[in-house]
Design brief:
heterodimer, A: Sufe protein. Chain: A, three-stranded antiparallel β-sheet, 4 helices, B: alpha/beta, Aspartate Aminotransferase, domain 1, Aspartate Aminotransferase, domain 2, seven-stranded mixed β-sheet, four-stranded antiparallel β-sheet, 15 helices, 17 strands, globular
């Protein structure tokens, strides 16, 4: 039973959903923002730290939500490292394409996020995967000098 | 079928609902989301299609055969609805789009027209957003205090607190659900009405869920306002009902302005039509009204005693099957409950449960069920919810329980 949902709930997703590595607020951070999905009640807050060059050096989050949204936030926290505001926006758009269409042939740097591609088969769950990214971009946009 | 039936032949009834023979990914549809919206019997579908094919025109204005017949069909729904609720007269039945609009009508017309700034409206912790937000809007626009009656951990109204909140006699209107869409709790409606009246308040009951599962008699409850929606009662979307005592409707100013709700119009002044038409501006949901008529006839024919007995058995069976599942918690343990069961599962979010159940052809609702304050009260963000209808079978509940055991294993 449920063999056909293994694309959605890959081991990585189940593991990250259960035991996220980055699910904590950062003691020192440069930006933070919340995201919520009023239709389903999922909530997330993201904290971002930059290095001197303006690239993301650390991301933490707190979330109440499903396995998909927590795993997505956790993988995002790793994928975002080293990105500037500009490249992060591109990465976020590429990720949105990945989880909507299942593929992003001309995209680079999505390897970490690839396990979430199965979400595309579940249209009602796409918003679970993208919610943390909306919060991350809100944090970046709200930050002076990084908008 | 006759209304003295006490045991439902569910297999036979299911043939009345064409959609129930659909399959989802090769599996039979197990539809356990009727509290969100119920499926429609052939009688409702045929009534609406039949009207469009054979007998349709705008109503209340045509001087021709089609308009007269369509008016009769639409107004016939008002008679049936009045009888369904035990109203004193057909004039006490106002058609709206849904329960939400019916509550907004009362919040606007009774709230702004009759209640005075400084008075209070009393709701409860287990209201649907539709019975919270209109009162917040009234509070902010009209200086009305909003009071909230707490519930117990079991999911029942705290009746001592309820009386305490009425005692200073500032509450002009109570607005409380007759059955919780999340916990399944039936509230002690007659007692709520008696206490409200004892302290000088009027009372609105939100019957969106309650009216589906049991016979409701607004006179024996001694309510002042009662609302429900057609689509949960096996009827179409787009038509809801407000019942109110005639003298209240007479005293209330109109809600929406336009055609059909006037007696005469000049650029200086307009006068209002008599009730209920004073509250029904514009061309109404004619086809949906005709569909609702068929739905009411259908449930009357099946019989509310039989529906209530069947659903009570389903609830007991579901509680017996779901409770032993390891890691599963049923939310709300009211003594008096209807065909709605909310639950959570350790290690599995409600959305993940719903996605897996969907793969097995089982439709449940997951989320906050438009009752965020109740979720917070129960210390939750979301639940999964299985809800039952007259066409639900014990076998479907067994499929749910067996599949939930697999869901538990999947996320363990």
């Amino acid at each position: 039973m449920f063999e056909d949902v293994r694309d959605l709930y890959q081991e990585v997703i189940l593991d990250r959903g259960r035991h996220p590595r980055h699910a904590q607020r950062l003691d020192a951070f440069d930006a933070t923002a919340k995201g919520d999905n009023p239709m389903c009640g999922d909530r997330v807050q993201v904290w971002v730290k930059h290095n001197d060059q303006g690239a993301v050096s650390d991301v933490g989050f707190e979330a109440r939500g499903c396995a998909i949204s927590i795993a997505s936030a956790d993988l995002m926290a790793e994928a975002a490292i080293g990105h500037t505001a500009t490249t992060l926006r591109k990465l976020s758009a590429d990720f949105a394409q990945l989880v909507t269409s299942g593929d992003c042939p001309d995209c680079a740097g999505l390897e970490t996020l690839q396990p979430l591609s199965g979400v595309s088969e579940f249209p009602s769950r796409v918003k679970c995967a993208t919610l943390p990214w909306h919060a991350l971009l809100s944090a970046i946009d709200a930050e002076p000098g990084h908008g | 079928m006759n209304d003295r039936m006490t045991h439902l032949d569910v297999a036979l009834l299911r043939r009345d609902f064409p959609i129930l023979s659909e399959t989802i990914r090769g599996k039979p549809l197990v539809f356990l989301d009727s509290a969100a919206s119920a499926q429609k019997p052939r009688a409702v579908i045929d009534a609406m299609v039949g009207a469009m094919e054979h007998q349709y025109a705008n109503i209340h204005r045509g001087l021709h055969w089609m308009s007269e017949r369509t008016t009769e069909a639409y107004e016939g729904t008002r008679d049936l609805t009045a009888t369904l609720l035990g109203a004193n007269s057909r004039e006490e039945i106002v058609f709206t789009r849904n329960s939400t609009e019916a509550i907004n009508l009362v919040a606007h017309s009774y709230g702004r027209g009759i209640l005075k700034p400084g008075q209070a409206v009393l709701i409860s912790e287990m209201e649907h957003h539709s019975n919270i937000v209109p009162w917040q809007m009234l509070r902010d626009a009209h200086g009305i205090e909003l009071r909230v009656c707490p519930i117990t951990d079991a999911g029942e109204l705290d009746m001592a607190a309820y009386e305490g909140l009425l005692e200073d006699r500032k509450v002009g209107l109570v607005a409380i659900t007759h059955m919780s869409n999340v916990l399944g709790t039936y509230t002690p409606a007659a007692r709520l009405c008696a206490l409200a009246h004892e302290y000088g308040a009027k009372i609105l009951l939100d019957g969106s869920q309650a009216v589906v599962h049991r016979r409701v008699d607004v006179k024996s409850l001694d309510a002042d306002f009662y609302v429900f929606t057609g689509h949960k009662l096996y009827g179409p979307t787009g038509i809801g009902v407000l019942w109110a005592r005639a003298e209240l409707l007479e005293a209330m100013p109109p809600f929406l302005g336009g055609g059909d709700m006037i007696s005469s119009v000049s650029f200086e002044h307009s006068s209002w039509a008599r009730i209920p038409h004073k509250f029904e501006a514009g061309t109404p949901a004619i086809l949906e009204g005709i569909g609702l008529s068929a739905a009411i006839k259908y449930v009357n024919a099946v019989g509310f005693d039989a529906i209530a007995a069947h659903e009570q058995a389903l609830v007991e069976h579901a509680l017996a099957r779901l409770s032993p599942i390891q890691g599963l918690s049923i939310i709300g343990h009211a003594q008096d409950r209807g065909g709605v069961i909310s639950f959570t599962m350790e290690g599995a979010h409600a959305h993940d449960i719903a996605t897996l159940l969907d793969r097995a052809g089982i439709a449940v609702r997951a989320g906050h069920h438009c009752a965020e304050p109740l979720m917070r009260r129960m210390g939750l963000d979301s639940t999964a919810r299985a809800s039952f209808a007259l066409y639900t079978t014990q076998e479907e509940i067994d499929i749910l329980a067996d599949t939930l055991i697999r869901v538990r294993e999947f996320f363990a």
